[in-house]
Amino acid sequence: MGDKIKQHRILAVQRFKNGESPESICTSLGMSRVWLYKWIKRSNGEEPSWCEDRSRRPLSMPLHTPAEVEEIVKMVRLNLYNQDLFCGAQAIYWEMEELGVRPLPSLRTINRILSRNDLTHRRTGKYEAKGTPYPKLPSLIPNQTHQADLV
Questions:
Q1: pLDDT for the residue numbered 143
Q2: Where do the domains of the chain lie?
Q3: What tens digit of pLDDT does each residue of 12-45 get?
Q4: Where does residue 92 rank: exposed (0-12), middle (13-18), buried (19+ CB within 10 A)?
Q5: What is the 3-state secondary structure (H, E, C) of the chain?
């Protein structure tokens, strides 16, 4: 499919350079005049790959989280997970605060790092309740026992 699109672009530019009107080129190819002029402008440069798509990704991301901080987030997350402790963004934030990490990323940034590195899975295994069970009075028929918590 990519080669067919490239051929469309090359053909349109060649037809324009041969003197054909932009209206007839655009109507025959089913494209807009803006599209045609974009590829004419790109073909005027010396770049041999002018007919290929260009990435819209920025060339640099100055506000990107430093790699060291990302590694610390992953290390703290795995450390908490291996100790069977809560290992969400808030716990990681607190742990990094105790370690004295600077710059300290926001909770949202920590969540993004965890998602990007596929560290957001839930624990496996059966749920084990912690603490003592709530006391329950035995009753044989409905409405036999009433219970209230007095504080």
A1: 87
A2: 2-43, 67-116
A3: 999 999 999 999 999 999 999 999 999 999 998 8
A4: buried
A5: CHHHHHHHHHHHHHHHHCCCCHHHHHHHHCCCHHHHHHHHHHHCCCCCCCCCCCCCCCCCCCCCCCHHHHHHHHHHHHHHHHCCCCCCHHHHHHHHHHHCCCCCCCHHHHHHHHHHCCCCCCCCCCCCCCCCCCCCCCCCCCCCCCCCCCC
Positive or negative CA dihedral for 19, 23, 25, 28?
negative
Among candidate residues 124, 95, 122, the one with its CA nearest the CA of residue 110: 95
pLDDT at 1: 56
Residues of the chain with pLDDT under 70: 1
